[in-house]
Amino acid sequence: MSLAPLQTVNEKRLNNRSNLVHTPVKGANANNNAGVGIGVSAGLDGKENHRSGSHHHNYQNNNNNKRVEPHGQPPQKKKKEKLSALCKTPPSLIKTRGRDYHRGHFLGEGGFARCFQIKDDSGKIFAAKTVAKLSIKTEKTRKKLLSEIQIHKSMRHANIVQFIDCFEDETNVYILLEICPNGSLMELLKKRKTLTEPEVRFFTTQICGGIKYMHSRRVIHRDLKLGNIFFDKNYNLKIGDFGLAAVLANDRERKYTVCGTPNYIAPEVLMGKHSGHSYEVDIWSIGVMIYALLIGKPPFQAKDVNTIYERIKCCDFVFPKEKYISSEARILVQDLLSLDPLERPSIMEVLDYVWFRGIFPPYIQSDVMTEVPDYEKKITMQESMVNFRTCMERSGLIDNTESYKNSNDVIPFDNIEMSNQQRQTILPNSLSPGGTRNKYKEVVDLEAQRRLNDLAREARLRRAQQATIKKDLVATSTNLIKSEISLRILASECHLTLNGILEAEAQKRMGGLPQSRLPKIKHPIVVTKWVDYSNKHGFSYQLSTEDIGVLFNNGTTVLRLADAEEFWYISYDDREGWVASHYLLTEKPRELTRHLEVVDFFSKYMRANLSRVSTFVREEYHKDDVFLRRYTRYKQFVMFELSDGTFQFNFKDHNKLAVSEGGKLVTYISPSHESLTYPLVELLKIGEIPNYPDCNFMEKLALIKEGLKQKSSVVTIEQNQT
Questions:
Q1: Structural domain boundaries of the chain?
Q2: Which CATH code, of 3.40.50.300, 3.30.200.20, 3.90.180.10, 3.30.420.40, is assigned to 83-178?
Q3: Alpha-carbon span 579 to 556, nearest angstrom
């Protein structure tokens, strides 16, 4: 699409938004025809407001549903002139590329565009979104319009307003769209005040179909709201207005622009540059829309925009006692409106919720704007299951090939099982339209479904927790390792222990282990004192065996044994990882004299200044001398990796945990130095350290797992040095 040379426009006009103004409409009712399958921003579908003060609705006299454009600020209250006022009324006959269109009724207007009904020579009617060229002041504005056109043009789905064409004349750019003659969900809610749950199930399924399609094409809508979802002639829903949509280069990319409509904006959007946002903003909008349709107003509604934002940031909403909403609907809405985007269900997880197993209509009736349907008495649970699956198929949520056999399959009458009551009738229910024997007999185990929902939620919470920990867990310092094979050995030990923890978690889910199979308790050798003097000499530590070690800055270690006049000198080796040389103190090499002086210095310092943090001592099963291979300091804890495969974590709150025997055993060292060892699977069963609930064991275990996971990826020497 080519645009004429851009003309200047008064700076104050640019990006202005205003309230809807009443525009006289000849021969048409603008309110009734506003649902045209487009977004013309803050007026037609952005404000989600009544045009006059004649109705006392929750959105009445409220600017809080105006769309926030990508510059990130809500519209100013004082507006001199609307950009839509720059849109010249199209001529009665619009000629373009040899095709003629006849202008029809005016349908509505918003901050940037006006919308008209137009008809081609064959009599087919479309909606024409008209944007004034005078409003396209900068190259950025032009690219924004082109992006909307390109994204919308690429969409082809049953639940997305169909893009038809685009062209321009001297004054306007025209975007031709499928006409949706029956209004929007916003207008439906204004007329009905609240909707029934069966209707909202149907609507939500169709909306999910459109969103799943968009997301599969890496498109985020970013302005999903009741006013942007329209009814076609058959009262099926269509998502419109791609003015704020964005395409992701890949699934890991984040967007940082603050935009959307205040009542619907997800919390991570408000955080802007701090976190970025992705597909989950559209999932959040589903939760807002379900709540609004069932309760009658959005969950974070307030008179002041800033109050709305504050409520969104802390997820401050309630279900009013005077409005009935099922517990299944509450659970779904609460999960959709999770503050952490990673805790929100995916589209397909949404449709797995028990709420969708309720009464489900086959279609939406044409009197939906005025009549409250009573589906509960007319539709059985078996029919609902068929209707739900059919709706999912038509919305592209499941493949037809996965479906049951075609409903036209003939079932031999002899094979139909009937109860005594059914035998009194001539035709059994299973012969009703759309019913097959398989569909009719299928029964959903709601309790099993609830359990599946709970498991899916737990998995999301774990992933979200791990992602948060991963983001926060950044090493501040670690010792230099000069051997590639040493790094591989360390990574292997971390991987082994992490797998041991995961295995214990799996055993816990299976009910734990019998007493005979529990690992034998062996207290590990642990670090009882340490001094980080790496700015000069290195890292010094005392073990529970009383041995003293210094991990020098050049990567070598001297380990002075407590029960003999001996020491080990340990250095890196390109083939073995570490090589240890054993010496008597009386026969020490001259070149190690300075090293031993440093060890003695640290020994005296620790004896004089540090208390021993553990009651453990050398046990008979401690056959080998142990040294510290690597230490890593994090904001949350210090991690010690010992040569016998034990990992110790000293947390900032003075609680300490050691994981030994390949992840099978966990040792807890309390702030008062009490030392206790348990099989990990037993701790997982109770979820805490016995008698020490304040330790927050499960939270610390999550940190430990992430630390091991990060260290289990083999890094090169170069990476280790950075």
A1: 83-178, 183-395, 484-617+624-720
A2: 3.30.200.20
A3: 10
Judge whether 183-395 and 484-617+624-720 match in fold. no
Contact, 628 vs 639, CB < 8 A? no
Fold of 484-617+624-720: Arylsulfatase, C-terminal domain (3.30.1120)
Q: For residues 224 and 227, what is the distance between their CA atoms, to the nearest angstrom? A: 8
- Give the pLDDT confidence score for residue 185 in this predicted structure: 97
Residue 587 burial by Cβ neighbours in a 10 Å radius (0-12, 13-18, 19+): exposed
Helix (H, G, I), strand (E, B) or coil at 309: helix
Alpha helix locations (H) across 403-483? 420-423, 437-441, 446-472
Tokens of 716: 């090169």
> Dihedral sign, CA of 192, 193, 197, 203?
positive
Sequence length of the chain is 722
At residue 651, does pLDDT exceed 70? yes
Of 360, 384, 439, give the one whose Cα is nearest residue 406: 439
Helices (H) and strands (E) in the chain, counts: 19, 23
Q: Which two tokens stand for residue 581?
A: 């040389």
SS (H, E, C) 615-656: CCCCCCCCCCCCCEEEEEECCCEEEEEECCCCEEEEECCCCE
**Residues near 14 by beta carbon (within 8 Å), at least 6 away in sequence:** 83, 135, 137, 138, 141
More confident residue, 15 or 379: 379
Q: Is the pLDDT of residue 709 over 50?
A: yes
Q: Does the annotation list 78 as a binding residue?
A: no
Task: Tell me how many degrees the CA angle 548-549-552 measures, rounded to the nearest 5.
Answer: 150
pLDDT at residue 428 is higher than 90: no
Confidence of residue 170 (pLDDT cuts 50, 70, 90): confident
pLDDT value of position 85 = 65
Kindly state the greatest CA–CA separation across the chain: 110
Residue 140 has pLDDT above 70, yes or no: yes
Q: Which residues contact 644 (CB under 8 A, 6 or more apart)?
A: 524, 525, 624, 626, 660
Q: What is the pLDDT of residue 81?
A: 55
Q: Tell me, what DSSP letter sits at residue 477?
A: E
For residue 235, pLDDT beyond 70: yes
**Which residues are CB-neighbours of 473 under 8 A, at least 6 positions away?**
634, 636, 703, 706, 707, 710
**What pLDDT, on a 0 to 100 scale, did the predictor assign at position 563?**
84
- Cα 706–Cα 709–Cα 713 angle in degrees, nearest 5: 145
Other CB atoms closer than 10 Å to residue 17's CB: what's the count? Answer: 25
Q: How confident is the model at residue 463 (pLDDT cuts 50, 70, 90)?
A: confident
Pairing of strands 557-560, 566-573: antiparallel
End-to-end CA distance of the chain: 50
| Residues involved in catalysis | 223
Reported as a single tens digit per residue, the pLDDT across 333-343 is 999 999 999 99
In words, the CATH class of domain 183-395 is: mainly alpha
With b for 16 or more beta-carbon neighbours within 10 A and e for fewer, the 246-261 pattern comes to bebeeeeeebebbbbb
33, pLDDT greater than 50? no
Q: Helical H runs in 510-648?
A: 593-609
> What pTM, to 2 d.p., does this model score?
0.67
Can you read off the two tokens belonging to residue 278? 């992705």
10 Å Cβ neighbour count for 346?
15
Q: Beta 219-220 vs 229-231: how paired, if at all?
A: unpaired
In angstroms, rounded to a whole number, what is the distance separating the alpha carbons of residues 477 and 639? 11
Residue burial 308-340, b: 16+ Cβ < 10 Å; e: rest = bbebbeeeebebeeeeebeebbebbbebbbbeb
Query: d(Cα 50, Cα 48) in Å, to the nearest integer?
Result: 7
* Mean pLDDT within 480-506: 93
